Amino acid sequence: MIEEINSSKVEPPNYFNREDKLKWLMRTYGNDVIRVAYTYLKQRQLAEDVAQDVFIKCFEKMDDFRNESSYKTWILKITVNKCKDVLKSWAFKNLLFTDYFGNNQEDRTIESKLLKKEESQLISQQVMELPLKLREVIILFYYQEFSIEEISVLLKVNSNTIKTRLHRGRLKLKQSFEGE
User: Fold this and answer.
1) Per DSSP, which regions of 138-178 are E strands?
2) Which residue ranges in the chain fall short of pLDDT 50?
3) Domain end among 51, 83, 99
4) Which of 51, 82, 99 is the last residue of a domain?
5) Whole-prediction pTM value?
6) Which long-range contacts (CB under 8 A, 24 or more apart) does 44-49 make?
7) In the prediction, which pLDDT does 160 show?
8) How confident is the model at residue 79, as a pLDDT?
9) In this structure, are residues 34 and 95 in contact, taking their beta carbons and an 8 Å threshold?
10) What CATH number did the domain enclosing 150 receive?
11) Do residue 95 and residue 13 come from a single domain?
């Protein structure tokens, strides 16, 4: 579909009931929710748990959605808030988990696959090592393709602060790659 090119503007069909709308939200934004949760929590399974909680919350609050923002902004705002709750929780602070950042990409040759995977892992690792405030802005801007204004609304932070965090994040990434 042409309208799916910019997923932040996509709307579910009006004839969908609540269950169909939830399924549509999960298909359309499920990977985005997991990616954003992973950037906060750095653990794949925990990110998947948060994604489940996010969609349960979406189902519960679906009738309260006022169309003041896109569905993507609404869902990712719920995701960010759930992640912040997890980060504050006792269990997260007192349990140690391990995970790695997986990346599935298709290419033509084995060599290019390996090079892309290595490059992607290096970039992902450097992004994940950024402080949370810089990391979340980098992920939302570059990977989720949110505008500065959308990130400002999502994080409840002034747009100039978002610009500053983006600039600082880029500088830190540049410095880390120059050091490699």
Assistant:
1) none
2) 1-8, 96-107
3) 99
4) 99
5) 0.56
6) 44/99, 44/100, 44/102, 45/97, 45/99, 46/86, 46/92, 46/97, 46/99
7) 95
8) 94
9) no
10) 1.10.10.10
11) yes
The whole domain housing 160 covers 130-180
Contact criterion met (CB below 8 Å) for 8 and 147: no
Residues 144 and 35: beta-carbon distance below 8 Å: yes
Structural domains in the chain (count): 2
Q: Which residue type sits at 31?
A: N
**What is the number of other CB atoms lying within 10 angstroms of the CB of residue 54?**
27
CA dist 95 and 134 (Å) reads 24
Domain co-membership, 95 together with 26 = yes
Phi, psi of 145 (to 5 degrees): 60, 40
Q: Where are the alpha helices (DSSP H) in the chain?
A: 18-41, 44-61, 71-88, 90-94, 110-128, 132-138, 148-155, 159-179
pLDDT score of 8: 44
Q: Supply the pLDDT for residue 1.
A: 30
Determine, yes or no, domain membership for 74. yes
Residue 53 confidence (pLDDT): 93
Contact 117, 96 (CB under 8 A): no
Token pair, residue 72, equals 């993507």
Please give the pLDDT value at position 44: 87
